[in-house]
Structure formats: C-alpha cells, structure tokens
UniProtKB/TrEMBL annotation:
Keywords: Glycoprotein, Immunity, Inflammatory response, Innate immunity, Leucine-rich repeat, Membrane, Repeat, Signal, Transmembrane, Transmembrane helix
Organism of derivation: Equus przewalskii (Przewalski's horse)
Ranges for domain LRRCT: 462-511
Protein name: CD180 antigen isoform X2
Residues annotated as transmembrane: 514-539
Signal peptide: none
Length: 546
C-alpha cells in the first residue's frame, strides 16, 4: 500500500484491516492517521506488535490483534503505545507464551484481553504493576489449557484491576486461598468454570459488586456461600447445568443486592418466593424465567418490595390464592408473564400494581378465546405497553380495554381476531398497533377513523379481501402508507386473481362498467315499455264497462 493510501478521508478514526494477510505492521501507511481511535487487525499473520516509530498512537482507544500469531510481548513492543491513554488492547486467541518483565510496568489500560492463553501465570506475572479496568482471561472449549491453581493466580496481587473474566477454565484445588488476590475486584465472571460450590471462608471480597456464575453445576443456591460477598449488587446464576434448589435464606446476607438472574436453571418450588428470597429488601430486578413450575401464594414477593422488573416468562405459574401474588409490588414497572399458563379468568391476578407500565402476556390463553368486559387488565390502569400476541384470541369485547387510557403500544399479533376487534381500541390515540397475522378480511368503513388516529399500524399476514366490498379500507390504506409497517407482507388473500399482490398495488374499479350501463339501459327501456302497456291495459279494462 502506498504511503498516501489514506489521504482521502479528512478525519479517519476507525480502520479495519481484518483478514488482509498482514504479517508486519510496517505494511500500514502512517500518513493521515493522526486522528485514529481504533485499529482492528484481527485474523492476520502478525507475530510482533512493534509499530513503526512514527506511527500515531496518541488518540488510539482500541487496538485489536485477536487471532494472530503473537506469542511474545517485549518492552519495546509496549513502549510504542505509551502515548495512548485508557487503551483497550485485545490479544484474544494468540496464546501468549512470554512477556518481558516490566513490559507493562506503570501502564494504564481500559481493558486487556488475553483470552485463550495456555498459561495464565505467564500473563499475570507479565502484567505486574500495571492498571486496567477490565481483564479478560477466559478460554474456549477447543483449547486444552492448564487447570488454574492458587499459585498461578498469585501474580494478580500485583495488578490493579476492577473486573476479571475467567470463563470456561477448570480450577484445581479450589479453596479460599484461590481468591486471595481477588480482594480488590468489583466484578468477577466465572461463567462455565465447572463449579459445584464456592469454598467457605473466602475473606476480603467486600469490594465485589457483580458476580457471574452462569452455566455451572450447583445443586443448591446455598453452595455459592453468598455471605463471602456482602457488598454484591448484581448476581447471575443463569443456565445452571443441574436442577437448582433455591433452599431457604441462601442469599439473606446480600442486603444490597439489586439484580438477581436465576433463569434457565430448572428451578422448581411449590411455595415461592418469600422464604427463598429472604431479606432482599433492595432487589429491583428479578429473573426467574425458563424454569420449572412455581407455586405462588398471596404476596409471594413480600421480601422484595422494591422490585421494578420481574421476568417469569416460560415458567408455569400455579397461583394458589384468590388474591394477587404481586399485590405488594407497588414499584413494579415491567412484568413479563409470557407463556406462563396463567389462569386469565382470575380478575384479581394483577391487583396491587399501580405503577405497572409494561405487561407481557404473550402465549397465555383466555377462556373461549375472548377478552370480556370484566377482565384481569382492569386493575392496571397505568399500562403503556401491552403484549397479547400468540394468545389464540378470537374476539375482544368493545369495553375490554376501557380502563387502559395510557396505552401507547398494543401487540395483538399472531391471534385469530376479525376486523371488528378494532372497535375495542376506539378510545386510544397515537398508539403503535400490531395486528399482524390475525384473521382480518374486511375492515368496515366505520372503523377506519379508529385506525386513522393511531401512529403506527401493522396489518401484515392477514387474509385481506381485495374486492369491492373492502374498497373503502383499501383506499384508506393507500392514503396512509406512512403509518403502516410491514407493507411488503400486507397482501391480498382473495379474490384468487389478486392473491399475493401487495395491498398498495391493488387497483379496483368498483364503478359501473360499459357493459353494465348497456344492460341497465336495456332493462330500463323494457321496463318502460312494460309499464306503458300495463297502464293501457288497465285503462282499457276500466272504460270498457262505460
């Protein structure tokens, strides 16, 4: 490449030279790169990160060398980057086998990624006396790395770091000593590290705010020994590989916990969730989605009165009380109950949620496929987003949503609703309305003003009638294309001659044709003659007796 290759752009900030076969950084022209902020050199044949002396690094924020052939980092290599501040440096997939002592001495980074390295002790010893906010040391399933021991992690004691990722590693002789150099951490990610339990007696982890234990093999929640991490605000145990027993009070020492994700962990409980979530008074987000059946009693979340977001999607809920299990959650704003096999005939199910803004009831069936005037939605008048897709709905009472005056987003897609169901939305204005994939054939002219007062409408994948009986709607559709989404999939189902044609392309001629006019004239002519003869006949009959 010529030295003037990048002369065109006036302020080049991001340069991607991925999979270009580069083996030497001298290949990169340095002219006009003074403003460069990110340089991506992944999947090449680079063996040394030594830049030319005049390479402008003062504005670099991201330098990506992932999946190259870099095995050794020298002082000279890193020295060239001394002008860059808060740099994110990525050596993922390079298998660094050696770092010259002092190469990273007193260097400050935003993030460092040494993913896939065979020997982590080499990395940590090489990073002594450096500072980074994030350190990614995870490995991958196709890499045969060494098991982690306490000795291998000792170098971490001399690295200033806030966040560490150790995904997919195996620990050997896991004990409280393993964590002795983790005391300064604020975030620790141990995803898929084959953990059956965390050792008791871990000390000094008072700074840890976020702990990720996804895809491990715990049998019971108490096996994480939560008391060792008293300052936690975020805890993730998602996708546990065994059936996870929540136990009783396993997290009660986490008084500051705000976010808890226990999804995809095959959790089952006949009486959830006060005993299991004891003393989580500051919890704001709880995810129990994709689990086994949960039984809910009155005020099932009494121990979590500060909840703002609750996700129970794809978890069969057995509500064992006549009152709402959510009635003490006065701050709850988002509730996901999709595919929960709910008893939607229980009108008190959602009582006590005065601040609920977003409700997802996707995949729950209503009795006889109908939402009556008196229904479970009457108690959530603050709703702004309502999702009722895949509910096998056949009809909606005209007054069913009458108490929901604040709605701005209504999703009724993937049901079997006819055109007259739009009547239930007559009191709403300026909303996003999704009616895709229903059974709408004809929309009567009287309902067109309801559609006109909405902001965005999706009518795609409906069996729309494109005959003159629906001409008023078709005319309205063409005049309001700016309001409609999914127009490419909004097509005719009948008559057969127009099947598959986009509604916006339909041209109907519903006036009187020339042939029709001819036959009308002939009909009127014959009718007139018949009338004249009839009158003559009646008059003759009347006067023949005089």
């Amino acid at each position: 490449m010529a030295e003037t290759s990048f002369n065109g752009p006036k302020s080049l900030k991001h340069l991607f030279l991925i999979q270009t076969g580069i083996s030497n950084l001298d290949f990169i022209p340095v002219h006009n790169l003074e403003n460069l902020e990110s340089l991506h050199l992944g999947s090449n044949h680079i063996s040394s990160i030594k830049f030319p002396e005049n390479f402008p690094t003062q504005n670099l924020k991201v330098l990506d060398f992932q999946n190259n052939a870099i095995h050794y980092l020298s002082r000279e290599d890193i020295k060239v980057l001394r002008q860059a501040t808060n740099l994110s440096l990525n050596f993922n997939g390079n298998d660094i086998k050696g770092i010259e002592p002092g190469a990273f001495h007193s260097k400050i980074f935003q993030s460092l990624n040494f993913g896939g390295a065979f020997n982590l002790s080499v990395i940590l010893n090489g990073l002594r006396n450096s500072t980074t906010q994030s350190l990614w040391l995870g490995t991958f399933e196709d890499i045969d790395d060494q098991e982690l021991t306490s000795a291998m992690l000792e170098g971490l004691c001399e690295v200033s770091v806030e966040s560490i990722n150790l995904q997919k590693h195996h620990f050997s002789g896991l004990s409280s000593t393993t964590f002795q150099c983790f005391t300064q951490l604020r975030e620790l990610d141990l995803t898929a590290t084959h953990l059956q339990e965390l050792p008791s007696g871990i000390e000094g982890m008072n700074s840890l705010k976020k702990l990720v234990l996804n895809v491990n093999i715990f049998d019971q929640l108490c096996q994480i020994n939560a008391a060792s991490f008293p300052s936690l605000t975020d805890l993730y145990i998602k996708g546990n590989m065994r059936k996870l027993d929540l136990g009783a009070g396993c997290l009660e020492k986490l008084e500051n916990l705000q976010k808890l994700d226990l999804s995809h962990s095959d959790i089952e409980a006949s009486d959830c969730c006060n005993l299991q979530l004891k003393n989580l008074l500051h919890l704001q987000y709880l995810n129990l989605s994709h689990n086994s059946p949960l039984g809910l009693q009155n005020q099932a979340f009494e121990e979590c009165p500060q909840l703002e977001r609750l996700d129970l999607a794809f978890t069969h809920l057995r509500v064992n009380a006549p009152q709402s299990p959510f009635q003490n959650l006065r701050l709850l704003q988002v509730l996901n109950l999709s595919h929960c096999l709910l008893d939607t005939s229980n009108q008190h199910l959602l009582a006590g949620l005065p601040n609920l803004r977003h409700l997802n009831l996707q995949g729950n069936r209503f009795p006889d496929g109908s939402i009556p005037k008196a229904n479970l939605l009457q108690t959530v008048g603050s709703l702004e987003v309502l999702i009722l897709s895949f509910c096998d709905l056949l009809s909606i009472d005209q007054q069913a949503f009458h108490s929901l005056g604040k709605l701005s987003h209504v999703d009724l897609s993937q049901n079997s609703l006819p055109g007259n169901s739009i009547d239930a939305l007559s009191h709403l204005k300026g909303i996003y309305l999704n009616l895709a994939a229903n059974s709408i054939q004809v929309i009567p002219p009287r309902l067109l003003p309801i559609l006109s007062q909405q902001s965005t409408i999706n009518l795609s994948h409906n069996p729309l009638d494109c005959t003159c009986s629906n001409v008023r709607f078709i005319m309205w559709y063409k005049e309001n294309l700016h309001k409609l989404e999914g127009s490419e999939e909004t097509t005719c189902a009948s008559p057969p001659s127009l099947r598959g044609v986009k509604l916006s392309d339909v041209k109907l001629s519903c006036g009187m044709t020339a042939v029709g006019i001819f036959f009308l004239i002939v009909f009127l002519f014959l009718f007139t003659i018949l009338l004249i003869f009839s009158v003559k006949y009646l008059l003759r009959k009347k006067y023949q007796h005089i």
